[in-house]
């Protein structure tokens, strides 16, 4: 929508004749951009070809209200002034525009300014834009949050992929790097945080003016500004760089700064040694912020973290500490790979994230106490990648990104975890030291520049002295996960033949890839499965002979991807599969045990192993398991099983109820048995709350909540109390609605408000469902971060009748929602509110929805197709259950 902005009088406004004629003719000259809010890659390339040597002077006035004021001064060199130039600025109320000394009426459409070439110079230019703008409330731009506990206002910025234009006038694309000089006027009790540390603060009545020195050259999405009365912790002694940590005052007691500083210092030391490049910035700030859209963001020198994931009202568990370390180190890797060296366009975003995921895990395993980090990666992120890469919607790692609106279309487990797995495999293929040298060479060569995939692969190829073009084509430009199987025969107790068989992906492109893996042979020995032999093999093509194993003692189990070097699904031979099912508890290697458990679960999802047979194996073996990470892996499969069984009712209602009771009873028993191990006990108690659905278990939870019952070692902190309240309301336990009101009255924090929303919308009441669905679809009454909570809790699996009541309506309005709400909203809406019911009618309904909605956005169509595939899988699993 076009909007005319009134120019306010800032002294004498000069409208030169040339400027007037320029404004009148400007509309006829603009042909490269329409009124789309998104920048195309072609437009970006054309602009960066003309614009260089950019610097920004940014002057902000912040007062805590719902708007802010800014003056952006931009200096840049223009190589060609024969055509218009656009400057991105979103939804601003422009007060003054000056181009090379000419003050003029802005040619502005609410998305970008069109700078007339008659006012621009071949060479150096200066543009000044003064404006006011509303703060955003959806987690992008300069986001504003009012703490419900004390009314204090907090601001933070988030720009990726292209939201810097919501905060200042900018060439908002990654390959126009610039320096930034920042001045901020803010209330006197506020902190102001940015890429550089302030060098002067001047008092100005009830305000202070913060002056920041010029930053290094950064892409716009790597710059940041955070402001508010943040509580600050500081550590200048643990490393060579000053470290600070910030959080809202009302949640400061839930932060464990010693852990933050410990992992940060360890990571900085590790990465400087590994990369051979000093940390690029002079200080290391980390800011916990509310309502954050993602887990964290790698703003140069001022990283932001979603506080909901890193605030704890009880002592952190090992799992929570490992997650904290992993995310800190992921974002830290970006300071080199992403901030120092940056992609040219958003098709390179996968490499940024894959590399950070790989390096973050490597650093966690080598620089912290979590030396089992790769096991956690295998059980978590890598399984997500295998799942995504097996979907009908799979995509290559490297894909075109036509516009900034498509930047996050393919940001998923393939981008993060498959990419990280592929880099891990490449490190094994090339050798660890060769890989490290290639990375170091890349960072040295392209420091403070933009680079491409070809630049990165070229650096590795140079270090390895080999051609990686075929590897790149097979792994990065083709989709799908292949399957590896060991085929062997034995004669007189010894292996007589051994072959690795590779089959192409069921989905994606049918390509056979080169990988280096380890083959493990195991034999039963004294009630254990003992490892007898490992051998490293590089395989490619359909069949690879392994003559070095001929003559080895005949194994009881063969695992052809031992220690998880490769990105490949393993199909166990019949003998190995039977051994795995019967001998799980006797496998001493926890990673191998994890991989064998995964093989059983993969067989369930493929429809080869009945779900009830898998659950039988769980009930026998899981109580014997003491590895914290592996228990978490198996529990995730049990949550999925419970979800499926709830959807399958009434077909398997009796079995569902039987399994639900058994899961709750097992979890409660193990909660009591692990009282001496706080981490394990909390894991089992959380599982008990999640699995509780029968009357006896819910009654017990209610008694724990009101203090009539106790469990040794368990203290109900506020988060756990909300967990129980939500579960009681989910199943409409008598009195649960009153409990919800009581708990909400005691906890008016942001997390408490969101927990109350979750417990409210999950209640099995049609009126509540209808009211909140209306709020979500019309975005009325609640800010988006709270609507996301409602979406995730509105239709739990067992509430099929309530789900069905609005299912047709939600599908009928899906295209309209997709068109009007945009990608940020739909990334939450589509996965949670497209209806599924695990039956043939639901499959048919989703198939029809795919046909009826050909114009859905990439993200929403992909979600719809994946949910259809999941429905088909659930139906197969249901039909395989034997009783």
UniProtKB/TrEMBL annotation:
Cofactor names: Zn(2+)
Origin species? Shewanella fodinae
Q: What is this protein called?
A: Aminopeptidase N
Q: Which GO terms describe its biological process?
A: peptide catabolic process; proteolysis
Output the Pfam families linked to this UniProt entry.
ERAP1_C (PF11838), Peptidase_M1 (PF01433), Peptidase_M1_N (PF17900)
Give the catalytic activity. Release of an N-terminal amino acid, Xaa-|-Yaa- from a peptide, amide or arylamide. Xaa is preferably Ala, but may be most amino acids including Pro (slow action). When a terminal hydrophobic residue is followed by a prolyl residue, the two may be released as an intact Xaa-Pro dipeptide
Q: Name one GO cellular component term.
A: extracellular space
Q: Which residues form the Peptidase M1 membrane alanine aminopeptidase domain?
A: 265-475
Q: Kindly indicate where the leader peptide sits in this chain.
A: 1-21
Homology family: Belongs to the peptidase M1 family.
Top-level EC class as recorded in UniProt: hydrolase
**The ERAP1-like C-terminal domain covers which part of the protein?**
557-869
Concerning Gene3D superfamilies, the annotation shows:
Neutral Protease Domain 2, tricorn interacting facor f3 domain
| Domain Aminopeptidase N-like N-terminal residue range list | 55-221
List the InterPro entries: Aminopeptidase_N-like_N (IPR045357), Aminopeptidase_N-like_N_sf (IPR042097), ERAP1-like_C_dom (IPR024571), Pept_M1_aminopeptidase (IPR012778), Peptidase_M1 (IPR001930), Peptidase_M1_aminopeptidases (IPR050344), Peptidase_M1_dom (IPR014782), Peptidase_M4/M1_CTD_sf (IPR027268)
């Amino acid at each position: 929508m076009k909007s005319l902005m009134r120019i306010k009088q800032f002294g004498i406004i000069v409208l030169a004749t040339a400027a007037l004629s320029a404004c009148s003719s400007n509309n006829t000259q603009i042909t490269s951009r329409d009124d789309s809010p998104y920048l195309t890659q072609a437009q970006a390339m054309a602009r960066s070809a003309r614009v260089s040597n950019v610097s920004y002077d940014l002057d902000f006035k912040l007062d805590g209200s719902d708007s802010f004021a800014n003056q952006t001064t931009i200096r840049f060199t223009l190589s060609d002034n024969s055509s218009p130039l656009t400057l991105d600025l979103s939804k601003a109320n422009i007060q003054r525009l000056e181009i090379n000394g000419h003050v003029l009426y802005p040619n502005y459409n609410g998305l970008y300014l069109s700078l007339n070439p008659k006012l621009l110079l071949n060479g150096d230019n200066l543009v000044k834009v003064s404006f006011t703008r509303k703060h955003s409330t959806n987690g992008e731009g300069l986001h504003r949050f009012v703490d419900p506990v004390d009314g204090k206002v907090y601001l933070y910025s988030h720009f990726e992929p292209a939201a810097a234009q919501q905060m200042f006038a900018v060439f908002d694309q990654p390959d126009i790097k610039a320096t930034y000089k920042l001045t901020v006027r803010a209330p006197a009790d506020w902190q102001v945080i940015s890429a550089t540390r302030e060098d002067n603060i001047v008092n100005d009545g009830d305000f202070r003016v913060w002056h920041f020195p010029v930053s290094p050259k950064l892409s716009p999405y790597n710059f940041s500004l955070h402001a508010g009365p943040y509580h600050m912790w500081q550590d200048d002694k643990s490393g060579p760089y000053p470290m600070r940590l910030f959080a809202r005052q009302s949640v400061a007691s839930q932060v464990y700064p010693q852990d933050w500083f410990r992992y940060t210092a360890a990571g900085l030391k590790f990465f400087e040694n590994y990369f051979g490049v000093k940390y690029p910035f002079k200080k290391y700030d980390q800011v916990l912020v509310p309502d954050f859209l993602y887990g964290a963001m790698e703003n140069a020198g001022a990283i932001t973290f979603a506080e909901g994931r890193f605030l704890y009202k009880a002592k952190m568990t090992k799992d929570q500490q490992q997650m904290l370390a992993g995310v800190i180190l992921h974002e830290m890797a970006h300071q080199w790979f992403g901030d120092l060296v940056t992609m040219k366009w958003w098709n390179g975003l996968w490499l940024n994230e894959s590399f950070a995921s790989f390096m973050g895990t490597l650093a966690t395993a080598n620089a912290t106490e979590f030396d089992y980090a790769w096991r956690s990666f295998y059980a978590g992120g890598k399984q997500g990648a295998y799942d995504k890469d097996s979907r009908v919607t799979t995509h290559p790692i490297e894909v075109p990104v036509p516009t900034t609106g498509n930047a996050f279309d393919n940001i998923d487990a393939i981008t993060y975890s498959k990419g990280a797995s592929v880099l891990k495999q490449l490190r094994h293929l090339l050798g660890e030291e060769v890989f490290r040298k290639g990375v170091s060479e890349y960072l040295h060569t392209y420091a403070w520049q933009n680079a491409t995939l070809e630049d990165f692969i070229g650096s590795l190829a140079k270090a390895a002295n080999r051609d990686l073009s075929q590897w790149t084509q097979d792994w990065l430009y083709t989709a799908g996960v292949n399957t590896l199987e060991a085929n062997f025969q034995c004669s007189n107790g010894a292996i007589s033949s051994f072959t690795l068989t590779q089959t192409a992906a069921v989905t994606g492109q049918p390509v056979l890839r080169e990988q280096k893996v380890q083959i493990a042979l195991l034999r039963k020995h004294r009630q254990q499965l003992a490892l007898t032999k490992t051998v490293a093999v590089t395989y490619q093509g359909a069949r690879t002979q392994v003559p070095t194993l001929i003559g080895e003692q005949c194994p009881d189990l063969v695992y052809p991807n031992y220690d998880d070097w490769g990105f490949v699904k393993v199909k166990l031979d019949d003998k190995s599969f039977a051994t795995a099912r019967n001998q799980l508890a006797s496998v001493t290697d926890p990673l191998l045990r994890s991989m064998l458990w995964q093989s059983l679960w993969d067989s369930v999802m493929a429809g080869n192993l009945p779900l009830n047979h898998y659950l039988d194996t769980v009930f026998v073996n899981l109580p014997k398991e003491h590895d914290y990470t592996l228990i978490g892996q198996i529990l995730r499969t049990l949550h999925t099983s419970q979800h499926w069984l709830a959807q399958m009712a009434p077909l398997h209602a009796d079995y569902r109820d039987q399994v639900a009771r058994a899961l709750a009873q097992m979890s409660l028993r193990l909660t009591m048995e692990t009282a001496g191990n706080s981490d394990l006990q909390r894991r089992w108690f959380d599982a008990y709350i999640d699995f509780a659905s029968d009357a006896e278990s819910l009654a017990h939870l209610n008694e724990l909540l009101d203090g009539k019952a106790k469990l040794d070692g368990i203290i109900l902190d506020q988060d756990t109390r909300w967990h129980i309240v939500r579960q009681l309301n989910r199943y409409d336990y008598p009195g649960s609605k009153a409990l919800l009101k009581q708990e909400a009255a005691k906890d008016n924090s942001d997390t408490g408000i969101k927990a109350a929303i979750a417990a409210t919308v999950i209640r099995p009441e049609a009126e509540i469902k209808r009211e909140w669905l209306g709020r979500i679809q019309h975005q009325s009454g609640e800010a988006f971060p709270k609507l996301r909570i409602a979406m995730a809790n509105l239709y739990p699996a067992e509430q099929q009748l309530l789900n069905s009541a609005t299912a047709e309506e939600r599908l009928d309005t899906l295209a309209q929602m997709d068109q009007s709400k945009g990608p940020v909203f739909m990334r939450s809406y589509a996965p949670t509110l497209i209806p599924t019911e695990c039956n043939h009618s639901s499959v048919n309904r989703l198939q029809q929805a795919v046909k009826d909605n050909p114009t859905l956005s990439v993200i929403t169509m992909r979600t719809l197709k994946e949910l259809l595939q999941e429905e088909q899988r659930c139906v197969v699993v249901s039909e395989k259950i034997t009783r």
